[in-house]
Design brief:
This protein is of the alpha+beta class. It contains twelve helices and eleven strands. It folds into two domains: 162 residues, Regulatory protein AraC (Jelly Rolls); 112 residues, Orthogonal Bundle (Arc Repressor Mutant, subunit A). It has a six-stranded antiparallel sheet. Helix 3 packs antiparallel against helix 4, helix 6 crosses helix 7 and helix 7 crosses helix 8. It is globular and about 55 Å long. The C terminus is likely disordered.
Length: 308
């Protein structure tokens, strides 16, 4: 892989310390990319080729890898062009600030620093570790708040007791984010990340990148897997979800805060993105927490949430 990797924007949200999700295939981030967060990547289905830094190898279900900040990476599954996979992997991302904070507060987590120092080359664990990590990471998908953090610490404890992982990239490999960011499209992506609520126009970003509008549009789609408008809307809607879940800001206020200038358009885009209105999303999130602010699983009489 000789092309420069694409910058991936990871929107953890103001009320969270980490982000976890699952995805299948096809999916927009299955490409050569990097980001400033650590990533724990677990393959749950398919086999194929692993790319981490200057390393190229094979993966199978149960493959668990930790990738450090700004290390380019990708997993390419051996599937047909029209084949659909419901879930290919589980992805957990967290910041260096979280690691530093935990290690400074809790001596028991002092092992994190030397462990994650090796993640700059990518660390691959034995398949048995991936099998043991799968139920923890899957539980994290549904957990929130302190429950999710507790599961994160359980995952770290599992990793600490695991056999020593294998370094993937060569010892001379060094991430070069400044070089990656010198690429015109990565500079445009950084501008979007810095202020997605601003009045961002594709033509302006094309000029910033030194492309004609049509060339920028094609290059942006190749780099991100989607159009500029869809990419921007997805980022704004992701932040809207965090605001809806986190506080009491009115829906109209959230609409304008994340960068939409029309409430009807915001509601329409949100419904298309999440399959429900913003008010329904907020209501269901509160049902999930319950009247005492705790998730149903933490109370003696679990709340019943009925799908429409």
């Amino acid at each position: 892989m000789t092309a420069q990797p694409a910058l991936e924007l990871v929107d953890v949200g103001a009320d969270a310390s980490l982000k976890i999700w699952s995805h299948g295939l096809p999916y927009r981030t299955v490409r050569w990319h990097f980001h400033p967060e650590y990533e724990i990547h677990l393959i749950t289905a398919t086999s194929g080729r692993t790319f981490v830094g200057d390393y190229i190898g094979r993966f199978e279900p149960g493959n668990l890898v930790i990738v450090g900040p700004n290390v380019p990476h990708n997993w390419l599954s051996d599937i047909g062009p029209d084949e659909i996979v419901a879930e290919r992997c589980l992805v957990l991302q967290f910041t260096d600030a979280l690691v530093a904070g935990c290690a400074s507060l809790f001596p028991e987590l002092g092992f994190l620093r030397p462990l994650l120092a090796g993640a700059g080359r990518g660390l691959e664990f034995a398949p048995s570790v991936g099998v043991a990590a799968a139920p923890i990471m899957r539980a994290m998908l549904a957990a929130e708040g302190p429950q999710r953090l507790a599961l994160f610490f359980s995952l770290l404890a599992l990793i600490r007791e695991a056999p020593a992982p294998r370094c993937l990239a060569g010892p001379a490999h060094r991430p070069t984010p400044d070089l990656y960011m010198s690429q015109p499209l990565n500079h445009a992506l950084a501008q979007i990340a810095a202020n997605p609520a601003a009045d961002l126009r594709e033509g302006d970003l094309a000029v910033l990148s030194g492309y004609s509008p049509s060339t920028f549009s094609r290059a942006f789609r190749r780099k991100t897997g989607t159009s500029f408008i869809r990419y921007l809307h997805d980022l704004r809607l992701s932040r809207a979800c965090a605001l809806l879940a986190a506080g009491e800001t009115s829906i109209a206020g959230i609409c304008f805060e994340v960068g939409f200038n029309n409430l009807a358009n915001f509601n329409r885009q949100f419904r298309a993105h999440k399959g429900m209105s913003p008010s329904e999303y907020r209501r269901r999130h509160r049902q999930n927490e319950g009247p005492d602010g705790k998730p149903p699983s933490s109370r003696s009489a679990p709340a019943q949430i009925h799908a429409p």
